[in-house]
Design a protein that fits this description.
Blueprint (H helix, E strand, L loop, with lengths): L1 E7 L2 E11 L5 E9 L2 H15 L8 H15 L2 H19 L9 H11 L5 H20 L25 H13 L5 H10 L3 H6 L5 E2 L4 E4 L2 E3 L3 E3 L7 E4 L2 H14 L11 H4 L3 H12 L8 H12 L4 H8 L4 H11 L21 H9 L1
Helix pairs in contact: 1-2, 2-3, 6-7, 7-9, 7-12, 12-14, 13-14
């Protein structure tokens, strides 16, 4: 197999050449051109190889996973690729490696998840089923199988208890952080004022902040494994700067803009991914609900909903890809059922004791 880089009319193009030998020893070759980038060329190389190797007939799980992981390595983020590789190697490959993919049945999937991974949490089991479904869906798209054996297998998970701060606790957190000149004070403040994810705040530069038009362009996010890349949904969004946020950003710019292109100061705990521990510890110290850094985003969302901001606007501001996700926070805030119990019309009777009864009781 080979990918050749060719310069044509001042532009770089890529050519794919794949050679394989069949069972009789005869060589088969396929050439395809021209691709605009190496990523497209590698994807085509994988597809051609699968076709030449006869993957439209019998394919073992082991053969299939090699190609699927290569596909994920090319198309997805590094963290996604390693997550799939780890889960497949630990839970599925040891059991299914020599099985033909079209012979794997729902009972095999059930056994892998509920027997081999019996000691894992319900959330891990649900994640394993999700991975299996995606692997088999790709096989359906490639014509290897006609039915996904992981469909219909479900895991019941208790809804996670999302920790958030109420309005009073927000005030206590910011007041105490500022009073003690806590190094994370600007990070917590901006998270509460914008609802941005930690990685988005990490990548935020002053060039993304337009104080004239009152908008922040959120287009990048940083993770320890992937470095800087697109946001979680791979979509840009605009945050409308509030009056309080503008005031805070103007003060922050005077302090830090001359030293760095980034809006927030770099801290080693942030680099190491320990920002959640730092916040939780501080909350415990000052006696409020112990939340992690990402919970500040949930707090921002519930505060917006409590203050009557429409679901669609909240969804756009925080960058949810599904309205269902935002609706989950609506239930968390209780805004959707606020005042509903007032229609019960049940009155608790007030018993007024006569003075002479009270005197009689005292005598007894």
């Amino acid at each position: 197999m080979a990918i050749k880089k060719v310069f044509e009319n001042g532009k770089t193009k890529y050519e794919v050449i794949v050679k394989v030998r069949d069972k009789s020893g005869r060589q088969k070759m396929r050439r395809k051109r021209w691709f605009n980038n190496e990523r497209e060329a590698r994807k085509a190389e994988l597809e051609i190889l699968m076709e030449l190797e006869g993957h439209k007939t019998k394919v073992t799980w082991k053969q299939w996973i090699v190609h699927v992981l290569e596909k994920y390595r090319i198309e997805y983020r590094t963290s996604t690729y390693f997550n799939y590789k780890h889960c497949l190697n630990k839970w599925f490959n040891p059991v299914w490696n020599d099985k033909f993919i079209d012979e794997i049945k729902p009972s095999d999937v059930h056994a892998a998840v509920f027997e081999s991974a019996a000691q894992t949490s319900s959330y891990t089991k649900r994640g394993l089923i999700k991975i299996a479904k995606r692997i088999f869906n790709i096989a359906i798209e490639e014509g290897l199988i006609v039915r996904n054996p992981a469909v219909g297998i479900r895991v019941r998970c208790a809804e996670a208890n999302q920790a958030i701060l109420n309005k009073n606790e927000i005030e206590i957190l910011l007041r105490e952080a500022k009073r003690t000149d806590h190094r994370f004070f600007p990070h917590w403040t901006l998270a509460l004022l914008t609802g941005m994810r930690s990685g988005e705040l990490y990548s935020l530069k002053w060039t993304d902040v337009d104080l004239v038009t009152g908008k922040i362009n959120i287009s990048k996010a940083w993770t320890r494994l992937n470095g800087e890349g697109p946001t979680k949904t791979a979509k840009n969004r605009i945050y409308p700067i509030s009056g309080e946020c503008r005031k805070f950003l103007e003060e922050l710019k005077i302090k830090h803009a001359k030293d760095s292109a980034f809006v927030l100061p770099r801290l080693w705990e942030w680099d190491q991914g320990d920002q959640a521990k730092i916040l939780k510890s501080f909350c415990e110290e000052i006696g409020i609900t112990q939340v992690k850094f990402h919970d500040l985003r949930a707090t921002f969302i519930t505060q917006m909903l409590n203050n009557g901001v429409p679901l669609s606007k909240v969804m756009a501001i925080v960058g949810h890809s599904s309205l269902k996700t935002t609706q989950g926070y609506l239930r968390l805030s209780g805004k959707d059922i606020e005042g509903a119990t007032e229609s019960l019309n049940i009155e608790v009777p007030v018993i007024e004791e006569r003075l002479d009864n009270v005197v009689e009781l005292k005598r007894r």
